[in-house]
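Whiteboard transcription, Tuesday session. T.W. wrote the structure tokens on the left side:
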């Protein structure tokens, strides 16, 4: 193991430390997405992709391009695409949410 390695580089099996952290990619996104927990926006709990999905039933057409541009302008270590999801529990349980799905960068230095 070397500090700059991603989990996949270790070739070890991922053992989820929480039901809400099913993948190593989730662990990379969690520190930033944890900030969403205290807002009126879903952080994807209640889906198969917690902390990779973010949105709400009230998200409109103007908000998504602004969010995507904000991520690019900030040099974020993640990419996003539009997503629709319906949480089975937690915020907006049973309601269709519109938002984004985040993908962590493959560059470990982007998270320093």
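and on the right, the sequence the group agreed on:
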């Amino acid at each position: 193991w070397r500090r700059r390695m991603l989990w996949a580089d270790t070739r070890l099996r991922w053992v989820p430390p929480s039901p809400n952290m099913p993948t190593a990619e989730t662990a990379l996104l969690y520190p930033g997405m944890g900030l969403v927990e205290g807002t009126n926006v879903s952080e994807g709990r209640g889906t198969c992709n917690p902390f990779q999905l973010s949105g709400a039933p009230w998200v409109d057409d103007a908000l998504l391009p602004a969010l995507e541009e904000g991520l690019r302008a900030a040099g974020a270590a993640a990419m996003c695409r539009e997503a629709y999801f319906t949480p089975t529990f937690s915020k907006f349980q049973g309601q269709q949410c519109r938002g984004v799905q985040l993908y962590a960068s493959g560059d470990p230095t982007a998270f320093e």
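Someone added at the bottom: Helices lie at 7-10, 24-33, 63-73.
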